[in-house]
Specification:
By secondary structure, this protein is mainly β.
């Protein structure tokens, strides 16, 4: 926003403000005040995150008072795309400073020709919102501080100039166009630089973003030409921002004619020749205006705001970005330029609020703390869809309800004086009605809650894991009280992998190691966990529990007999052996579960089964089909053998995940060649996945292949066999023509593709690691069928 005849220092003022101060506005605001920030130059270039306290502007008059509890904001620059830049400016004390990124605090273009290429002048780390260095800077009327402002209140509330004690403050940031001087980005291109992150110390509601000075230019006069405007050569650019946060929308509050909000993007709508000035000034030699300035409200609850930062080249530029003078003939050039901008924040003054967070608590209450995992902050989540229900003190009646934000935060505003509890659930409450059931998305479980008489930045739990804050100590809200940190911990359960392996018939007393490194390699105990081991693999170093001992042998770990139900920490497959009783029973099997870092085992333990040559499996299917009949799924299966068979349990999933629910059971008849049927009602618009759990009389079980149906179309009758897979599997029942087979690992990574030009074909996966995989079958007509396999 400062300009010089030989260059324009474009100043983009990004001010995140949440206050509106018209006379008619009665709600106070919290704002950054100028008196807190350094007023003199020379604070140099920096990448250190900076924090500012927000002060209470009681009467919207820029007379600030303290606020309790303290709310502050920290600004940081992350995911830098440009490194190796030399900010070689000299500080006022004579020392030099070097920064190496395209985004930086406290820097600006050099004001004179600098012998150091990429030389920069240190600027204030902070400055007033309207700092420009001359006429044409932002004006008060371009900003709206209060998110609730309407009508005549729009365009009020921020003070861009005046004494330090009564003027709003801002953080200064620099986007260096010089980073692009020797790159492939031509005139009019748009380049990503990194992220601007603003993090509040507690969730906040509806912050307003103020932007000033989105645009600038660089000009030079070729040597020997007359010093008139028409002889100057110019390049134009503007910093632009894209909101990363999900679940938030943006609303334009006020701004100048260049300020544009498109979706959640803050843009300059004068990209032909944006310049550093926000206001048009008559009589200037050059067109020094065109910088977008204004205010935008973010609608929703958020604790961390993330913007992607871009530099957009002006389409009227006569050269791309900024280039050292040595690269342009007959020119005297400053070696450095870029876009200066400022960031500030203000908020609506909270009255009475209850807020909190949902943490992905990977270790549960092992560390007695839902906020952290053994000293490392747990990430936040909404698990794909959760509600926070504000309840009365007894936890019986819903007072209010709100969705948990995409960043895992929630906030109840204008809460009446009284005592409350909070429930976390996928079920949204209805105010005035009884509390709904407490539930989490499939695969998630509660690990703990915190919310007592005086919550606030407190780690720990309430001692009763139930998805409801401490009923014994309700949250007491008094006049003007803010209650943050009503926190919940949730995590996902682990998954253990079934194995069936054919081995040579063992003699009585023979011992084998259940390890792939043994002389006769056997599959190791394997599993996955979203928090601890996202990709399915051996459970080395994890905790394992044997839930059922072998029916025909003895398990020994580290020289001791395994005790059913006793966890084995720091598991080592080379220490687990099985000693066989003999070949008479033709098989040996046991069940095991992966126990995650929170101490929770897989609720559906896996079956580990060894069958020797000639030994039959308990139940052998010859086919399993699923056919739609007027939105009824007709499941039919036929057995070849039913030795020691007990029953078939029908399981269904509507998310193609590993989480299935039992929806019915059919008893086995012990009759070979028997055909069974089961009907299941379906709803429109949902893809269903069916499988059979085939259970022996001794409790051992295995799963069938998966079949998929939808009420809206024709059901798939595609089979994948065998499953589990050792080296290869065959897909049958596809459409004739070109079928594309896609194999994905548990983390979604593509590991194999193959074309099968007919209705049946083999897929070889001998080189893939053991674990669970998704198989996507895409017909030539675009029809997609998805199944799952387990690779032994």
């Amino acid at each position: 926003m400062k300009q010089n005849l030989l260059k324009s220092l474009s100043v983009l003022v990004l001010i995140i403000a949440f206050s509106a101060k018209a006379v008619a506005q009665l709600i106070p605001t919290l704002e950054m005040r100028r008196a807190d920030l350094p007023a003199t130059s020379g604070f140099g270039t920096s990448l250190t995150p900076m924090t500012s306290v927000l002060w209470n502007d009681v009467a919207n008059s820029n007379n600030f008072a303290g606020n309790s509890p303290e709310i502050n904001v920290t600004i940081s620059l992350q995911n830098q795309q440009f490194t190796g830049l030399n900010y070689g400016g000299v500080l006022p004390d004579g020392t030099s400073t070097v920064q190496t990124t395209g985004l930086v605090f406290g820097a600006g273009p050099s004001l004179a020709t600098d012998p150091i290429v990429f030389g920069a002048t240190p600027y204030n780390r902070y400055n007033i919102i309207g700092e420009y260095g001359g006429a044409g800077g932002p004006t008060n009327s371009m900003f709206t501080s209060n998110p609730k402002a309407i009508g005549g209140e729009l365009g009020t509330g921020m003070k861009v100039s005046g004494s330090n004690g009564t003027t709003n403050a801002a953080f200064e940031v620099f986007t260096t166009a010089q980073a692009l001087y020797n790159g492939p980005n031509g005139i009019g291109s748009r380049v990503y630089f990194g992220n601007l992150v603003l993090r509040f110390n507690q969730p906040v509601l509806n912050p307003v973003i103020h932007l000033a000075g989105l645009g600038g230019s660089y000009r030079y006069l070729p040597v020997g030409l007359t010093d008139i405007p028409s002889n100057y050569v110019s390049t134009f650019f503007a910093t632009e921002l894209e909101l990363v946060n999900t679940g938030l929308t943006s609303t334009l509050m006020s701004g100048n004619q260049f300020f544009q909000i498109t979706g959640n993007n803050v843009l300059n709508n004068n990209d032909a020749n944006p310049n550093g000035g926000s206001a048009v000034v008559a009589g200037e030699t050059f067109n020094n205006f065109g910088a977008a300035t204004g205010s935008v409200r973010l609608n929703g609850t958020v604790q961390e705001v993330v913007y992607r930062v871009y530099l957009q080249g002006g389409t009227s530029s006569q050269f791309a970005w900024s280039v050292p003078g040595t690269l342009i003939a007959n020119a005297t050039r400053d070696p450095f330029t870029g876009d200066i901008w400022y960031a500030a924040v203000s908020l609506d003054k909270p009255t009475q609020q209850i807020s909190g967070n949902v943490f992905n608590d990977r270790d549960g209450l092992v560390d007695n703390n839902i906020n952290q995992s053994v000293g490392v902050a747990n990430p936040k989540t909404n698990a794909g869809g959760l509600f926070a229900n504000l309840l009365n003190a007894a936890g019986t009646t819903v007072i209010a309800t709100i969705p948990v934000g995409g960043d895992g935060t929630f906030l109840f505003d204008n809460v009446a004086i009284g005592s409350y509890t909070v429930q976390l659930s996928t079920n949204q409450g209805v105010p005035g009605q009884p509390r709904p059931g407490t539930a989490l998305p499939a695969g998630w479980v509660n690990t703990g809650e915190f919310g007592s008489t005086n919550p606030g930045n407190i780690a720990g739990n309430d001692g009763n894991v139930n998805g409801i804050s401490d009923l014994a100590n309700p949250i007491v809200v008094g006049s003007s009280e803010i209650k943050p940190e009503v926190n919940f911990g949730i995590e996902r359960l682990p998954e253990s992998v079934d194995f069936t392996r054919v081995i040579p018939s063992p003699s009585a007393g023979i011992t084998m190691i259940l390890s792939p490194t043994a002389a006769y390699p056997l599959p190791p105990l394997t599993g996955s966990d979203p928090e601890d081991q996202p990709i399915s693999g051996p459970l080395t170093g994890k905790t394992v529990v044997i839930t059922n001992l072998p029916n025909n042998g003895t398990l020994i770990y580290a020289g001791n007999n395994v005790i059913s139900g006793t966890p084995i920490p720091n598991f080592n497959a080379n220490l687990l052996t099985v000693t066989f009783n003999g070949p008479a029973q033709a098989s040996l099997q046991f069940n095991y579960a992966y126990v995650d870092a929170s101490g929770r085992p897989d609720p559906t333990p896996a079956l580990y089964r060894l069958v020797w040559t000639g030994g039959p499996l308990a139940i052998t299917l010859t086919n399993f089909t699923a056919v739609k009949n007027n939105c009824i799924a007709g499941l039919t299966w036929k057995t070849a053998e039913e030795i020691n068979a007990s029953r078939f349990e029908i399981e269904v999933s509507n998310s193609n995940s590993a989480v299935y629910a039992k929806v019915g059971s059919v008893n086995a008849t012990a009759t070979n060649g028997k055909t069974y049927q089961f009907n299941y009602p379906m709803q429109a618009g949902i893809q269903y996945y069916f499988r059979l759990k085939m259970i022996d009389k001794d409790g051992a079980f295995k799963y069938s292949d998966v079949r998929s149906l939808t009420c809206d179309g024709k059901g798939t009758i595609i089979t994948i066999a065998p499953n589990p897979v050792i080296d290869q599997f065959v897909i049958s029942g596809m459409e004739n023509g070109k079928n594309t087979i896609v194999v994905l690992a548990a983390n979604g990574q593509l590991v194999k593709t193959q074309i099968i030009p007919q209705a049946q074909g083999y897929v070889n996966i001998v080189n893939l690691a053991s674990g669970m995989y998704s198989v996507k079958i895409i017909s030539e007509k675009g029809k997609v069928t998805v199944g799952k396999i387990i690779k032994n």
